[in-house]
């Protein structure tokens, strides 16, 4: 059997669908310049995609047809030679909407292989979220603003070719830079893109991650039951109703917290989270009423606290909140836990409000807003700034 | 059209009453006796006769149920599906393309383990538009988790409707059941029927108890969520498990039926006619049994030893029993009132199933010939049966015959 390479692109559903599809296609076409054969495909279970849901696209490349067929004789690659994460907030874990459980981003990565993350953060910051594992691997950062676009619009900010350049360096056995360059010149016909790819190739560095290094959080496990043990009639037991709960400081009991499914968290879909100013909240109920996932708890104070395990970060609460800066969506990379904001507010009101002010201020720059297509031409305007950040190295 | 001959003060009676009614009326009365909670209707011939009779029973104050006329068959079957999930005993039905229009609802019902009972007034599928009997409509759900049974007389229709509720609502089963009745020959012809008493039926048919699967505010469950490839095979396997013991449940129910009502059906799955000394047999479903029996008696007078096997239950298909029954004959002719396009040997559905059952259930290899006849309500005549019998005798003698022949076809 000849050489077989599998590459996995983990991306945000809808926002990066076209980008991920383009990259896996480009890998195959670039490798084909060296006479290799390959296929690319999106994970079937991820479609139809939801906004922001962690999703996967694959490229499988081989030297000959029989080897390629051996790689194709499975639903999706179980082990990959390279994992590319197109948005660094995905490092918190990938959980498909069709539900395969919550997986760390390097779930399928072979020992000693490379994990490439598109990020503005440094390795130390990322390792706070990337889970530890038993096998060593390499971590490479592709510096850049996360490229998000929409269902019908594509932001051509060179992320595709920059990833290709990085791949040529990380896994030269798969594809050489010469092949990447030839592909870009022949097919994409944009000399600027060759430059972007070369910059990524030249500046590529990877660091060794040792076993046990990274986020110690235990990912919850889920066992699939035998058919005899499953409930009949495609039915699932409902959740209990929930009820009032306790103020951590005053010990007053009140409000309402629904019981939520312990096995379906949904927070990995989130790229931004709502931060709430409980001091200015007017208890108008709009966030609670409009949340599509019923993610708000009614606190014993009568304010509304987002449950950050259930919130998928859609931003509707921010949009409907009538009070200025009372609910603000902040990039998920700022956070390392899903704890209750209201509990923090109750424990130390002043510290919370100071933190809130600072966080909102930092969240203001537009490149920190991960999504939000607002007008025609907006993405084209964002491209030069994105390129500048990327090429600063 | 006959008027109902149900005795008004039926409750006072303690013994069965005799009435001259159609097969459709018989099923309507069975629904009343079974105390059905929700009935949905949408007119299409020949099923519509049963909906007319039920509406009459409701209008006359004899039957108490929710009677909902839907805006089409799809809704008709969806409504009873949901009512059944909420613990209601339900009845609905359709015919031909109406049944097909409900197909999406029909396919989702078995996996949800809902024991709805439907009457299919068998009708040719359009085009061409035709009212006459053809079995392809009901047979379209044969692989999808529905139980399918065919009846031959108004009496059998009434009895089988009661049996249907008992079988479908058995906790071990909980799958839908379609009661197939040949259009015209059964649905529109009146014959004398013994109508059991309410007390007897009460004794025979326990309350429908959905237990932990009940959709109710006191038992909060989600039904039919989206699932991926990690789940679907297990769900299918759960439905297939039903087929492993379905025949035992059916046998049990028929035995109980005999105890309570006194009417004997013998083997629940098929009825044999003059097979004891037969050299060859014909096999078929539904009302074509009448011309077949007449022809057999005539042929017997000429010394031709032919018998008939009438299949009652098509799903579950009692394969091993059928093979054991058929292996003793020199040749078998299967009469299909349907066609199975492009099937092995270009046969009808039943012939293909019988051949398959013989292959695994017996080492005997008598020729199994297929006949396609009586499509679109065309009469299956006594000479047609004589003709088929002759062909089967020829095969028994070792003379090669085509695997499938169309009988009663011009040309």
Low-confidence parts of chain B, pLDDT < 50 over ≥5 residues? Answer: none
Query: What is the CATH H-level superfamily of the largest domain in chain A?
Result: Pyruvate-ferredoxin oxidoreductase, PFOR, domain III
* Domains of chain B (count): 2
Arithmetic mean of pLDDT of chain A: 91
Average pLDDT of chain B, rounded to a whole number, is: 94
Question: How would a textbook summarize the main sheet of chain A?
Answer: 7 strands, mixed
Task: Say which CATH homologous superfamily of the largest domain in chain B is assigned.
Answer: Thiamin diphosphate (ThDP)-binding fold, Pyr/PP domains
H and E order of chain A: EHEEHEEHEHHHEEEEEHEEHEHHH
Based on secondary structure, the structural category of chain B is: alpha/beta
Total beta strands of chain B = 16
| Proportion of helical residues of chain A | 25-40%
Write down the secondary-structure element order of chain B: EHEHEHEHHEHEHEEHEHEEHEEHEHEHE
Oligomer description: heterodimer
Radius of gyration of chain A, whole Å? 22 Å
Q: Helical element count of chain B?
A: 13
Portion of residues in beta strands of chain B equals: 15-25%
CATH topology of the largest domain in chain A, by name, is Pyruvate-ferredoxin Oxidoreductase, domain 3
- Tell me the CATH topology of the largest domain in chain B: Rossmann fold
Structural class of chain A: alpha/beta
